[in-house]
Structures are given as structure tokens and as C-alpha cells.
Amino acid sequence: MATNAVPQGPTDADQQASDLCRSSDLLVALVNTRASESGRVELLGDGAGLARWLTTNGLVDDGVSVTNGDALAAQELRAAFVSLFRSHCGCADAPVDEAEAYLRDIGLRYPLVSRISADGYTLVPAQTGVPGAFGALLAAATDLAARGAWSRLKICKNTSCYGGFFDKTRNSVGQYCSPACGSQMSMRAYRSRLRKSSSTEAVGTSPGH
Fold first, then answer.
1. 208 alpha carbon, distance to own chain's centre
2. What is the pTM of this model?
3. Is residue 20 part of a domain?
């Protein structure tokens, strides 16, 4: 039986780390369903694709009805998260206001309820099926925000990657999802400087100078 619950509340250190990883891994997996120049393919292009992704991530049971309209809604939700994750990297052009307004609306559409126990509490979607799955994604975001880790979800600044990642650097200053992406961008910047330098030298040595 699939569960949409995202554990929260005070637990021991190991459980907290596990819950943090589940929440961050789920949202990183969502934003990385986008196609990219680096070879990622679109995974939420239709209802069948969304059904596979939701089932794989334990958000719905096999056989739950998933439509193409649901896939479009998932893409919109994903785009809102991407905008906020880009803002966490300092991207000034990210449409943050629109994304925040959209997520506020979605929060009303897919509400969460608090399930309290002796060990703490769990945010559980009030709905089941695809609406419950969308609610679980919102619960994951809420979980990370409550733990002070929300701003660590980012989009890689390598223009051919743009993959989502959880920044594990001490001061949350990471800009790339991997050392390879960082090296690739450094090499591009180096080559760009060389081209500019060569162009400047060519102008300086042209006839009439």
C-alpha cells in the first residue's frame, strides 16, 4: 500500500536524517524528471509517464487512474519548484513571485492534515490517489522548510545540466550538482576568456592601429 505521509517532528538523529533524505530525494527526483541537454528525458510527458514515476516513488498504488491532465498539473508543480530552487542559487531571473502564488493555490487544492502521535507528528495528505501524491510533494517541501533545509534544494548552474540537487556544503554555497559540472563551467569560462583575449589582440594589431 503506497503512503503519502512524510514523517516530521522530533525524533532521534538517525531518524531525522532519514526523513530529511526522503523529503529532499523526493523533490530532487521530481525536478529531475525534466529533459535536459545532458541527456535526461522528459518523464512526465503524459499520464502513463506520471503513473510510472508516482508508482516508482511510492506515491500511488499500481492501477490508480492517472490522466494526461494530471501530467500537465505535475509539470506545473514541478516548474514552480524549479523556479524556487533556482532562486536558492541566486538566479535573479527566476519567477519567484509566480511560483509562490502557484504553490499557495496548490496548497489549498491539496491540503495536508497533522497526524499526532507519542513520537511526534506526521503531515498526511487529506486526499488519496494523484491529489494525495501532489499533497505528499507539498508535505516534503514543508518538512524541509521546518528543518531549516529548504534553501539547500537548488538547480545546478551548469547550463547543459540544470539538474536539481541538495546542497550539502557547510555554508550552503554550492552552485553545481557535482564536481564534474563545476569543472565543465570553469573550463567554459576559461575558453570564453581566451576568445575575448584573442579578439582584443586581433583588434589591437589590425591595420591602422
1. 55
2. 0.81
3. yes
